[in-house]
Amino acid sequence: MATTLRSIRGVVPLLDRILVQRMKAEAKTASGLYIPEKNVEKLSEAKVLAVGPGAFDKDGKRIAPSVTPGDRVLIPPFGGSSVKIGDEDYLLFRDSEILAKLTDEK
CA separation (Å) from 105 to 22, 85, 102? Predict the structure, then answer.
């Protein structure tokens, strides 16, 4: 029997897992033309929604994750575990699989 989740809040990452949602690419060009959905590229940018408590090192000490909910991160184009809730797709990555944390510094 499959479990049906109604909200992403029902997903709590374990250990060093990080739940992200890939940012949606702009489906409209600068000149105002709409791009068909199948031609829109997947972005490597994602928003962190939830973070596990962290993994353990060889001495049994917990290693805190490097990101927090709300952060913007770069993720690899492939990989992660896909989670689908309703019409939305989410991904679970290990902390070590996150490529970079994005900041708004200029």
Answer: 21, 33, 9
Q: Is the dihedral of CA 77, 80, 81, 85 positive or negative?
A: negative
d(CA 97, CA 79): 9
Say whether pTM exceeds 0.90. no
Helical residues (DSSP H) of the chain, grouped into ranges: none
Residues 6+ apart with CB under 8 A from 63: 16, 54, 55, 56, 57
Measuring CA to CA, which residue among 105, 106, 93 is closest to residue 44?
A: 93
Name residue 70's amino acid: G
Q: Residues 38-93: pLDDT tens digits? A: 555 566 888 999 998 888 989 989 988 889 999 999 888 888 888 888 778 888 99
